[in-house]
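Escalated from tier 1: flavin-adenine dinucleotide holo job.
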Amino acid sequence: MNKRTFLKLFSATIATPAVSRFSFWAGAEKLTNWSGNVAYSTDSLYAAHSQQQIQEFVKKHAKLKVLGSRHCFNTIADSKDTFLSLKPLDELVSLDPLAHTVTVDAGISYGQLAPLLTDKGFALHNLASLPHISVAGACSTATHGSGEENGNLATAVSALEFVTASGDVVKLSRQQDGDFFNGTVVGLGALGVITKITLNVQPTYNMRQYVYENLSFNTMKDHFDAIEASAYSVSLFTDWQNRRFSEVWLKSRVEKDQAFDAKPEFFGATLATKNLHPIAELSAENCTEQMGVLGPWYERLPHFRMGFTPSAGKELQSEYFVPRPHAVEAILAVERLRDQITPHLLITEIRAIAADDLWLSPCYQQPCVTIHFTWKPDWPAVSQLLPAIEKELAPFQARPHWGKLFTMPPEKLRAHYTRMPEFIALAKKFDPQGKFRNDFLNTNIFSA
Ligand SMILES: Cc1cc2nc3c(=O)[nH]c(=O)nc-3n(C[C@H](O)[C@H](O)[C@H](O)COP(=O)(O)OP(=O)(O)OC[C@H]3O[C@@H](n4cnc5c(N)ncnc54)[C@H](O)[C@@H]3O)c2cc1C
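Tier 2 regenerated the structure:
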């Protein structure tokens, strides 16, 4: 960070652990997102150590954004004014073994939470491809893993506590607030500063992960439903060339009756004989264990291991949610652009997600399949390609991931969300003056 970059505590009387806690964000010229493709519009970054500090900070500032673990590829988290980080607030607050819920501070990451939960005999239903992201940021953007019976990560949220624009604390729960609560969970950072999140948990479980190589598009076309139903979590990887998925990742829960029986062949694909990276040329060192080795849920559900740089490192990402009935047609539609896509692509991943009732979830009341693109870090080229992909996917009501790169015009984006007018009203209730809005939100949500 340059000289203008600073971390401040709200009270001079408090000791300053924050500076060391944030050292991993220091060193760069400017404050950027994880990928480095977004240089945030301010370097002003404050760290809160208590609910009281959060409330005072919110009351004092006319505009601010909460920064999570900075893993969004677009400007949804950006601020021209000031950032508030809750990173020092990263405790497991309480576990209710009877209600099967855990309450956490909003600054905690899945990587921090998962081993703590497991030690107490519990687990989450799913994780994203990496454990490094904050629970609050992930749920706010409808981040997901895979598995046709698994809702996105926000579907585990059963209660929320947040500080509204006035500095007041609001507590909401699924049990008490019903459908209104469903409007707040995927909140895009527009409703307030989430301070605590309660998540549904289940008894801990072990998993085995298997990778198969070379599944043909023709087989996928004829057996898509059977392939998706074959394991707890299924991911298909392709570079769009040669009409085949180079890798199929299957994550199987061992305690369930349907534990995957790893035969040498899977729909014509061949069982891998060593650990693989989704991008076959890269070392599998940073990937979670495969080859059927038994391990805890949190070391098999993500593709990438905690403590290592996830994914490819220098990259961009885009992802589109397509209602499940259109999955095969949509995949084949994108394949028509293969020769335009492949030169700029590192890898594509196809995943399945269950339907939910969260107003701004792309899977609102419809199961989806996602078509994800990990791009080489060349935004001029990618920005030329995205409109072509979005045009190809338009007949299938595809909508982009809230935290990744897209070029869809705001009116088209909003049209995919039937509950958008109610969400806007909700945001205005908690934040009448737009304290938590930024250019991304003003353009994509509030310009209606
Ligand atoms: C390598 C990599 C792999 C990824 N894999 C997946 C994947 O498998 N599946 C998937 O769906 N996505 C994936 N993503 C995207 C990522 O999960 C989302 O972008 C997610 O939002 C990241 O959380 P964050 O805390 O880093 O968010 P940030 O970028 O820090 O913030 C995102 C939004 O959340 C808001 N926010 C954060 N904390 C709070 C809070 N306490 N209160 C209110 N608002 C808050 C911010 O203001 C902002 O609007 C990946 C990203 C990367 C870089």
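The first strand starts at residue 6 and ends at 8.
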